[in-house]
Amino acid sequence: MGLSMRKVIKNIKQLVTPISHDFAAGDNVKKLQIYEDVNIVIEDGVITDITKKDVDCNDVIDASGKCVLPAFVDPHTHIPFIGSREDEFNKRIMGKTYMEIAKEGGGINSTVRAVRNATFDELYKAAKKDLELMIKHGVATIEMKSGYGLDLENELKQLRVIKKLQEEYPLDIKATFLGAHEIPPEYRGDKEKYVKIIIDEMLPIVKEEGLAEYVDIFCEKDVFELDDTRKILSAAKELGFKIRIHADEIYPLGGAGLAAEFEAVSAEHLVKISDENIEKMIDKGVVFNLLPGTTFFLMSDDYAPARKILEKGGIVALSTDLNPGSSYTHSLPLIMAIACLNMGMTMEEVINAVTINGAYSLELSNKTGSIHVGKQADLIVLNAPDYRYIVYNFGVNRVEKVLKNGVGIYNCF
Ligand code: NIG
Ligand code: FE
């Protein structure tokens, strides 16, 4: 026997996992596998057994009366950012719209000013705080993106912050370049020029430095429209980037169709997606990454058509979209509650969405997102006997422990 590290989570009242090893859609997304009174054996960070037999081990977590789930995956956040926009939030409560505030110079561009003014260390510290809050709410795998720099120097600053987080934290962290998040103030009257800078200057350097695996675009009316999106996606694909797109969030522009055409890994938001583009995305296996926190926080009634997508067999993931403007929450459990209560998803569907389907959308479902022998021991212990408490006890964080590769990264007590 070598010096392998062994750990057991014992007496688990309820162990819940997606059935699927890769992604859950169709009949599988409605199901979960549930074990009662079992132990999980972990060796060198990997799940090696799920058993009812007593296991002898010195390193034990007692989960009597508790529920164990795969740790959550958040495949869409806007970490790193700095500063806050509670003033805009108040204006929105009093009736201004998100796009009106953006046109007055607020919105994304107010966070751009804050990020440009911040040093690398300030931005890193802010990002660390956000990441730690996410972990407390059960996340052990996450996507982060640039998009608040909007010039070469500051986009690189954001991506280097992500790189440092990848080096310092044991989490799986995936990086996305979102230089096309907004038209920066200095190019307001000359969007073409900015698109050219993204294509000719930013994309090649981001690629050369290996700072991002994905390229994303805020494809939206009055921001980057279909022709801009097409140009940027073609250039990104040519350089070997994979694609994720903010599509059809506010106006039904048809970005989801481009996501299918360019065989994006995922398309995000999709509030206004057309039936035709739902079919196209399903045909190409593009993940429907829904972000209902945005609809909720922007006080809109328009939710993405989750039921329709699920019934047609689409692969649905859910994310916080954590950002200071349109969805300021670090809580995937809250997003799960919104998805159930306002989009009509079942509790089983949301668990699949934030575990195996999130992992699939980050191309990591071979190693995380479900509790199967051979996968990383990325797990959470709930301070509750049943997985349904996560949504049922809305607004309360029931996550008590988070393990990444078998190592505790959060412990509530
Ligand atoms: O995903 N829609 C564009 N981007 C973000 C909002 C960013 C912001 O308001 O700062 C989103 O909702
Ligand atoms: Fe977003």
Explain the overall architecture.
- This protein has 15 helices and 16 strands.
- The protein has 413 residues and is an alpha/beta fold.
- It starts with 5 loop residues before the first strand and ends with a strand.
- The mean pLDDT is 97.
Query: In angstroms, what is the radius of gyration?
Result: 21 Å
Task: Specify the biggest β-sheet.
Answer: 8 strands, mixed
CATH homology superfamily name of the largest domain: Metal-dependent hydrolases
How many strand elements?
16
Number of helical segments with 4 or more residues: 15
Q: Class of the largest domain in CATH?
A: Alpha Beta
The global form is globular
Tell me which CATH architecture of the largest domain applies here: Alpha-Beta Barrel
Which regions contain 5 or more consecutive residues with pLDDT less than 50?
none
Task: Tell me the distance between the termini.
Answer: 34 Å
User: What structural class results from the helix and strand content?
Assistant: alpha/beta
Binned strand content: 15-25%
Give the integer mean of the pLDDT values: 97
CATH topology of the largest domain: TIM Barrel
Helix percentage range:
25-40%
Ligands present: N-(iminomethyl)-L-glutamic acid, fe (iii) ion
The number of distinct structural domains comes to: 2
Catalytic activity: 4-imidazolone-5-propanoate + H2O = N-formimidoyl-L-glutamate
Binding site for Fe(3+): 76, 78, 246, 321
Subcellular location: Cytoplasm
Function: Catalyzes the hydrolytic cleavage of the carbon-nitrogen bond in imidazolone-5-propanoate to yield N-formimidoyl-L-glutamate. It is the third step in the universal histidine degradation pathway.
